Amino acid sequence: MALWDWTLKAYAGAGVPEACLTLQDQHGQNTSLLLWAVWAEAADTVLLARAADVARRWEALSLTPIRAVRRALKPAFDGIGDRDREGLREDVKAVELRAERVLMESLEALTDGHGGAHALAALEAAAAAWGKPAPAEALAALAAALG
């Protein structure tokens, strides 16, 4: 199954969105990289480092600024109608989702088969490659939610 399709299915699972958002917002992780690592059963440190580099550069260029605009559009804005503001926020949300998909498709293109790592091991390796600490319990929560 293609990574994007797998991700949509996985993200629909109970607890997955919450675990991903905790890792993203509270621990500075790139959830696209984490989900890719589980899908790819990533164990190769060279591949993980390359994927983390792509994710880091793409996040800085597109995901972080787009996400900041989406979040800035959430509260009411004096002089702009809520309907128009929310409509624009939904448009930006769609662009953010597209940027995440571009990243995931790029990560998938780096993958040649599956590395054999179990979900938690892949998450731990991806978090290490990302270079920011993630609590073991937060990674374990995502691994458990993914099944």
Keywords:
single chain; 147 residues; mainly alpha; elongated
Task: State the major sheet.
Answer: none
The percent range for helix content is over 70%
- The run of helices and strands is HHHHHHH
Strand content: under 5%
Structural class: mainly alpha
Bulk shape = elongated
The number of strands is 0
The structural domain count equals 1
What's the helix count?
7
User: How far do the termini sit from each other?
Assistant: 16 Å
Radius of gyration: 16 Å
Overall mean confidence score, pLDDT: 96
Low confidence ranges:
none
Outline the structure in words:
The longest helix has 29 residues, at 82-110. By secondary structure, the chain is mainly α. The two termini are 16 Å apart. 29% of the residues are buried. The protein is built from 7 helices and no strands. It has helices at 3-11, 16-26, 31-40, 45-72, 82-110, 119-130, 136-146. The chain has one domain (3-146). It is 75% helix and 0% strand. Helix 3 packs parallel to helix 5.
Quick description:
By secondary structure, the chain is mostly helical. The chain has helices at about 5-10, 15-25, 30-40, 45-70, 80-110, 120-130, 135-145. It has one domain.
